[in-house]
Amino acid sequence: VQLVESGGGLVQAGGSLRLSCAASGSIIRINGMNWYRQAPGKQQELVASITSGSSTKYGESVKGRFTISRDNAENTVFLQMNSLKSEDTAVYYCNANVDLPEGIRAEFWGLGTQVTVSS
């Protein structure tokens, strides 16, 4: 299974970006999907989570500004980021809990996409 993120880039403070993460491979079902981020010199932070039933949770620092969603038919998760701040600058990683053939369940990570917010 591969997770491929896209949509990162450079944006001015107050702007918006939409990240996508597409999963491919021998997937029976994708359960929870998450976005994490890691800024230089900081610990990895959970940004947002979405269950297979589309229940969502957000980190305190992004509540009201970021929205996570998913397209189950396309095995894709999105992160709409609005009102971006310089402190949102980080590498954003996609994570998914996946049901594979033969009853195996495993967790996968993407390689990350850089988001840089200029002030």
Describe the structure.
0% of the residues lie in helices and 58% in strands. It has no helices and eleven strands. The strands form two sheets. Strands 2, 4, 5, 6, 9, 10 and 11 form a seven-stranded mixed beta sheet that branches. The relative contact order is 0.33. The mean pLDDT is 97.
Rough shape?
elongated
Helical residue percent band: under 10%
Q: What is the first-to-last residue Cα distance?
A: 37 Å
Residue runs with pLDDT of under 50 for 5 or more positions: none
Strand content: over 45%
Main beta-sheet annotation: 7 strands, mixed
The DSSP helix count reads 0
Rg from alpha-carbon coordinates: 14 Å
Chain-averaged pLDDT: 97
What string, H for helix and E for strand, traces the elements in order? EEEEEEEEEEE
Structural class label: mainly beta
Short note summarizing the structure:
Helix content is 0%, strand content 58%.
Write the layout of secondary structure elements.
Elements: E1 2-6, E2 9-12, E3 17-24, E4 29-38, E5 45-50, E6 56-58, E7 66-71, E8 76-81, E9 90-99, E10 105-109, E11 113-118
Parallel strand pairs: 2-11
Antiparallel strand pairs: 1-3, 3-8, 4-5, 4-9, 5-6, 7-8, 9-10, 9-11
Feature tags:
about 120 residues; 7-stranded mixed sheet; about 0% helix; about 60% strand; elongated
